[in-house]
From TrEMBL:
Protein name: Peptidase M16
GO molecular function: metal ion binding; metallopeptidase activity
Domain of life (superkingdom): Bacteria
Record's keyword annotation contains Protease: yes
Domain Peptidase M16 N-terminal: 36-178
Domain Peptidase M16 C-terminal: 190-367
Family note: Belongs to the peptidase M16 family.
Signal peptide extent: 1-20
GO biological process assignments: proteolysis
Keywords: Hydrolase, Metalloprotease, Protease, Signal, Zinc
Native source organism of the sequence: Flavobacterium sediminis
Pfam families: Peptidase_M16, Peptidase_M16_C
Length: 441
């Protein structure tokens, strides 16, 4: 009874916090199609200015991969009014910090400044959009930067090519079949004109959302946004081809060799629906149930109790068009892949044939309530969420309502979705193994 009361208290506390944390925002469009979102937060004298462009690795050509990630770097090179190499100096000299990141679906740039530097941040982001300098010296410089990044984070990193090994086998026609960082030979072969054309096509106001979040005067912010962004001409609307993958109806196996590892990794991967679907959110809950923390089903069974795995995990790699559901494991000692898959399948079968316990269901609900609170706990997180929900989900108010979707997911739905997507005949099994030593003649 005491445990039940404690759980009820926790749930009520989290529910109260989430209700209190409702994110207020204002949104409008400029005549050139730029969507603007404003969120005031006076808890600290800082302001985040961010721009998210609806361009990612999936918008590239098969022989020119890596462009979107390349532009994440290239658009810090300089503009008509910001000399080459001066971008970071200006930010630092004014007490700010900035960064950018790229996925298969979008590219995100942001600055964090003391609130009295909002005009500077708005001007800099408008410069990036209106007056980028894309020349050969910038392309050559960033080409070397990206190559070094790939060497450090992918080529020389244990299991660094895991995502590549999975994606190129899980997708046959969709551009998700290549990685965000791309292939270096594609960047080497690209001409300056190709980079300039990519910029002209995708880095346009009507393919972006501007978010200003933090401490600022709304009327003044709107005036600066109009002054610096309104003169930017509207671009040709981006049209995207729809790619549909044939369903996986028979299990298949593939292998990848990695010279940086000594212990193999075994991966079972299932194709899943868009992150915008309810089913994708159910799969997120299933991932948490199976492998989040040491008390999760797969970890407790295969790592703690049976000691067959050094590590095990499950996650739903959600994207705008499709997702991939990963279950990976590192074997302990002489444990075979078949033995690990058997243990994994036993837990999935339980999900497919039995309802999870009320206690486990309550634990899941509490975790997702907590995750929701944490995702909106900082103004930086709110700015990112506002941009994501507008640009990729098409429903910006999900920043306040997505938690209601998770709250409404039932134990019966968890069982149904496990049956729908996690069948053995609908998966790829990847043996990610140490590279074999080449014999000398």
């Amino acid at each position: 009874m005491k445990k039940s009361l404690m759980a009820l208290s926790t749930a009520l506390l989290l529910g109260g916090v989430t209700n209190a944390q409702k994110v207020a925002f204002e949104e409008y469009d400029l005549a050139n199609g730029l969507h603007v979102v404003l969120h005031q937060d006076n808890s600290a004298p800082v302001v985040i200015t961010s721009v998210m462009y609806h361009v990612g690795a999936k918008d590239e050509q098969p022989d020119r991969t890596g462009f979107a990630h390349f532009f994440e770097h290239l658009l810090f090179e300089g503009t008509k009014n910001i000399d080459r190499g001066e971008w970071f100096k200006i930010v630092t000299a004014n007490g700010g910090q900035n960064n950018a990141n790229t996925t298969d679906d979008r590219t995100y740039y942001y600055e964090v400044f003391p609130s009295n530097n909002l005009e500077l941040a708005i001007w800099m982001e408008s410069e990036r959009l209106m007056h980028p300098v894309i020349n050969q010296i910038g392309v050559d410089t960033q080409n070397e930067v990206v190559k070094e990044e790939k060497r450090l984070r992918v080529d020389n990193q244990p299991y660094g090519n895991l995502i590549k090994a999975v994606k190129q086998n899980m997708f046959k026609v969709h551009p998700y079949r290549w990685t965000t960082i791309g292939e270096m030979e594609h960047l080497d072969a690209a001409t300056l004109e190709e980079f300039q054309a990519f910029n002209k096509k995708f880095y346009i106001p009507n393919n972006a959302v501007l978010v200003v979040a933090g401490q600022f005067d709304t009327a003044q912010a709107k005036e600066w946004i109009a002054r610096y962004f309104s003169p930017i001409p509207k671009g040709t609307p981006v049209t995207r081809k729809h790619y549909e993958e044939a369903p996986i109806t028979e299990s298949f196996k593939t292998t990848w060799e990695d010279p940086n590892i000594q212990i193999p990794m075994y991966v079972a991967c299932y194709r899943t629906p868009s992150m915008k679907t309810r089913d994708a959110r159910v799969l997120d809950m299933i991932s948490s149930y199976l492998s989040d923390g040491k008390s999760s089903k797969l970890y407790k069974k295969l790592v703690d109790d049976q000691k067959k795995a050094l590590q095990i995990g499950a996650f739903n790699y959600s994207q705008e068009d499709y997702g991939m559901y990963f279950i990976y494991s590192l074997p302990m000692g002489q444990t075979t892949e078949e033995d690990l898959l058997k243990g994994i399948d036993e837990e999935i079968t339980k999900l497919q044939t039995e309802l999870i316990s009320e206690k486990d269901y309550e634990k899941l609900q509490n975790k997702f309530e907590s995750d929701y609170v944490n995702s909106n706990a900082s103004v930086e997180g709110i700015a990112n969420n506002l941009a994501n929900y507008y640009l990729l989900y098409g429903d910006i108010n999900l920043i306040n309502t997505e938690i209601d979707i998770f709250r409404s997911i039932t134990r019966e739905e968890i069982k149904e979705v496990a049956n729908k997507y996690l069948k053995p005949n609908q998966r790829m099994v990847l043996d990610y193994v140490p590279a074999k030593e080449k014999t000398q003649n």
